[in-house]
From TrEMBL, chain A:
Pfam families: Ribosomal_S2. One of its GO terms (cellular component) is mitochondrial small ribosomal subunit. One of its GO terms (biological process) is translation. Gene3D superfamilies: Glucose-6-phosphate isomerase like protein, domain 1. The lineage of its organism: Eukaryota, Metazoa, Chordata, Craniata, Vertebrata. It comes from Cynoglossus semilaevis. Keywords: Mitochondrion, Ribonucleoprotein, Ribosomal protein. This is Small ribosomal subunit protein uS2m. It is found in: Mitochondrion.
UniProtKB/TrEMBL annotation, chain B:
The keyword Ribosomal protein applies. PANTHER family: MITOCHONDRIAL RIBOSOMAL PROTEIN S23, SMALL RIBOSOMAL SUBUNIT PROTEIN MS23. It is found in: Mitochondrion. One of its GO terms (biological process) is translation. It comes from Cynoglossus semilaevis (Tongue sole). The keyword Ribosomal protein applies. Residues 2-132 form the Small ribosomal subunit protein mS23 conserved domain. Keywords: Mitochondrion, Ribonucleoprotein, Ribosomal protein. Residues 163-196 are annotated as: Disordered. GO terms for cellular component: mitochondrion; ribosome. This is Small ribosomal subunit protein mS23. Pfam families: MRP-S23.
Length: 180, 196
């Protein structure tokens, strides 16, 4: 996390918010495109404090959330656990990349194994190396997590509305998304 | 469906790209995110970085410490006057703490006059006294609480200043010894102890 830190004030790491803005822009853009193309998005967070918030955000977007214990074979052993021909998520969004014992969430490694891109909010005690689109930011306070949930919800909703609009205009054909 | 579960080699993108190039993954099986990633790649390739397991030599800390030049003034302030008895009201975003007022006054006086640090320090305290804020030295007996600005203007600032200094010095003494000295202004002007 060292390149994403602005400095350290009295033993408190300060994240460089200029970099955060750029990373957030990239991550939200990617999420929007995935949602536009009809991809399945899974919100993951093992923080008990925000479990309900994350689940309700996912419900409002019409997407999915997993805020409980992550079973080992969830992604890697999905055909056996959930039946054959299961469609795996196309994007994983981590509101907190750590699990309850302050180790990296298993989902990050599993998503990389299954060639699924990830978007995640990485705090100063996290390892951002495996996350496709990291967002350096605070994942501890309710204000911060509410902000991220709101942003993701807004992005996904707008992307889906745009998709519906384009489908109505051009019939049922799938148009190529315009580059931003 | 073909896949590659080697998360420690290359990125998600390179693995899928190579699978398609080699023909293992057909183009109709292309994942949804592939084109989006190609068009908008992240700032850093999400390569796996192995974390350090053994810390042999303490690595130099690359994160810079953030210090401001007002921190020196703050340090001296807290050393002399101790923590503020007033509560910090953080709900009000415009709340200015005592130490912050002191620092603001100090920088203001520093830009106006060219005194050295200790003299400037005393000047700031006197200026705050004029505004009606009484600064109590650390460990001193609680003196009169904040007086109104009009009453303060009528007093002679120098007298009050020296009286306060000797009063706090005396109270510091009384904590150690038994002697009680007279704290009338005229006596103190002669026998006032020089402060730092």
């Amino acid at each position: 996390m060292e390149p994403y830190l602005y400095g350290c004030r009295l033993d408190q790491d300060i994240i460089d918010l200029d970099q955060t803005v750029e990373h957030l822009q990239l991550a939200l853009n990617f999420t929007a495109h995935i949602a536009y193309r009809g991809g399945i998005i899974l919100f993951v967070s093992r923080r008990r404090q925000f479990g309900h918030l994350v689940e309700s955000t996912a419900m409002k977007c019409g997407e999915y959330a997993h805020t409980r214990y992550w079973q080992g074979g969830l992604l890697t052993n999905a055909p056996v656990q959930y039946g054959p021909n299961v469609r795996l998520p196309d994007l994983l969004i981590f509101l907190s990349t750590l699990n309850n014992v302050f180790q990296q969430h298993v989902g990050i490694r599993d998503a990389a194994k299954m060639n699924i891109p990830t978007v995640g909010v990485v705090d100063s005690n996290c390892n951002p190396s495996l996350i496709t689109y990291p967002i350096p930011g605070n994942d501890d306070t309710p204000v911060s997590v509410e902000l991220y949930c709101r942003l993701f919800q807004m992005t996904i909703r707008r992307a889906k509305d745009k998709r519906r609009q384009m489908e109505l205009l051009h019939g049922l054909s799938k148009p190529t998304p315009e580059s931003s | 469906m073909a896949g590659s579960r080697l998360e420690k080699f290359g990125t998600v993108f390179t693995r899928v790209r190579d699978l398609m190039r080699s023909g293992v993954m057909q183009s109709n099986e292309k994942p949804i995110w592939y084109d989006v990633y190609k068009a908008f790649p992240p700032k850093r390739d999400p390569l796996y970085v192995k974390p350090y397991t053994r810390v042999i030599v303490k690595r130099p800390d690359l994160v810079p410490e953030i210090f401001y030049k007002e921190d020196k003034v703050r340090a001296k302030f807290y050393e002399k006057y101790g923590p503020s008895p007033r509560v910090f009201e953080l709900i009000k975003s415009s709340h200015v703490s005592l130490s912050q007022k002191f620092v603001d006054k100090y920088t203001e006086l520093q830009s106006q006059s060219e005194l050295d640090e200790t003299a400037l320090f005393n000047e700031t305290a006197k200026a705050l006294l004029k505004q009606g804020i009484l600064l109590r030295r650390r460990g001193a007996q609680p003196t009169v609480s904040a007086v109104s600005a009009d009453a303060v203007e009528k007093l002679n600032i120098e007298d009050v200043w020296t009286e306060q200094q000797s009063a706090s010095a005396d109270s510091a003494e009384t904590q150690h010894g038994d002697t009680q000295t007279d704290t009338s202004p005229s006596v103190d002007l002669n026998t006032s102890k020089t402060t730092e």
